[in-house]
Design a protein that fits this description.
The chain has 399 residues and is an alpha/beta fold. The chain is built from 13 helices and eight strands. Keywords: Signal.
Length: 399
């Protein structure tokens, strides 16, 4: 049977997923169980965060290291950041890792990559504070104010092709979180169309940490941000004829940006955003259009936001595949499936355990959790990568 008849109108992304023939259980790559241990609040930063101690005195361990060379997943903050806002960021990150809140990372393979690389959310009271400290996090992969790495990256795992998909590793596309961008009871950071929820910067920045350090390394051929991955193919289908406004793409100096004279629905005009950056943003756009973040309205963005979701008679300047309003969640998901069907197939309908529920900032796992494959037996079983009860730690900064 000819190729086109066999697959019909099936996209390249769906063909790639079928060709890999990986069952959803295999995607998660469950690890050997570990014993559940008591979680005690420490009074100082742990030894593996020694390079942070001169600058940061508040620390939340989200995942503790599980091997000698592992670094864990952390949130660190200066003493000028409100404690409640440090807790907010930690709970958002925990809820992304454990979206069903059963006490375990939903995808152990992703959590293991973040543990190995030392994924860190860094918080400062204001941008000037970060500039003054001249901070570098040696050996860790963490975010700075300008979306660049402040520590040396580890090489990206090779994919099924056996070739490194991005020499030198993936940059973390995100920013340090500043006190004013984190919501709690702040009225101005509650969702524009759903005042019972908070729509602040951590929803995006913690997600970038999860995808760039976790998912991209766990599944480089599929969810890596380099050209040729399934994620980048889905993104390119959504960009369509709109092109790129940066030379840092496979097109190089021949890249052209055609918006608004184009038919694509993803068109980012920022010339500093490389191909990898575009893919990182695309991953978040898809999930934020699905989970309510865009439907309910990001409160840290202008009320009359022209970047996201089409308005009446006008196209969004960056991402069109969503809808915003008090009852717009269904419409947003419909717009997403229409405008980026490959992204939905890859990130929503697949077995990668991408978090689809928007974090509330209230992480409430059971006090005792059983191993996933033995639930219902009534027997407590150990399992690796247990998310910590999100408690704040205070340490003494070194002089």
């Amino acid at each position: 049977m000819p190729y086109q008849n066999l697959f019909g109108r099936m996209s390249y992304v769906r063909i790639l997923l079928l060709s890999l023939a990986v069952p959803s259980q295999g995607l998660q790559d469950a690890a050997t169980p570990y014993r559940i241990v008591s979680l005690l609040v420490a009074q100082r930063l742990p030894d593996q965060l020694a390079s942070f101690s001169p600058y940061f005195s508040q620390h939340v361990p989200v995942i503790r290291p599980v091997c000698q060379d592992c670094l864990g997943v952390h949130v660190v903050a200066t003493d000028k950041v409100q404690r409640s806002k440090v807790e907010r960021v930690a709970t958002v990150l925990a809820q992304y890792l454990d979206n069903n809140e059963d006490g375990w990372a939903d995808n152990a393979r992703v959590a293991a990559q973040m543990d190995r690389r030392g994924a860190v959310m860094v918080m400062c009271a204001r941008p000037e504070e970060l500039d003054e400290m001249n901070f570098t996090c040696d050996g860790f992969m963490c975010q700075d104010d300008y979306g660049n790495e402040t520590g040396p990256p580890l090489p990206l795992d090779t994919g099924s092709s056996g070739n490194s998909t991005h020499p030198g590793g993936l940059p973390v596309q995100g920013r340090v979180l500043f006190d004013s961008t984190v919501g709690l009871t702040d009225a101005h950071l509650r969702c524009v169309h759903n005042r019972s929820a908070i729509c602040d910067a951590p929803l995006e920045e913690a997600f970038h940490l999860l995808t760039d350090v976790g998912f991209a390394h766990a599944y480089p051929d599929l969810l890596g941000t380099q050209p040729g991955s399934a994620l980048s193919l889905a993104m390119m289908g959504t960009i369509g004829s709109c092109g790129y406004n940066t030379e840092e793409t496979p097109m190089g100096k021949y890249a052209r940006f055609h918006f608004p004279n184009c038919t694509g629905t993803y068109h980012y005009a920022d010339e500093t955003c490389s191909f990898s950056c575009l893919a990182t943003e695309y991953f978040h756009h898809v999930i934020a259009s699905y989970n309510g973040e865009y439907a309910w309205g990001r409160a840290d963005l202008p009320v009359h936001n022209r970047e996201l979701c089409n308005g009446t008679g006008s196209r969004a300047l960056e991402w069109e595949n969503c809808a915003a309003g008090p009852d717009a969640l269904h419409a947003s998901r419909k717009a997403l499936r229409s405008g980026s069907p490959d992204g939905v197939a890859l990130l929503v309908d697949s077995g990668f355990k991408v978090p689809l529920v928007m974090p509330s900032g209230r992480y409430s796992p059971p006090l005792f959790a059983t191993s996933a494959h033995l639930r219902g037996s009534g027997t407590l079983q150990p399992r690796p990568l247990r998310l910590q009860d999100v408690r704040l730690e205070f340490g003494r900064a070194r002089s």
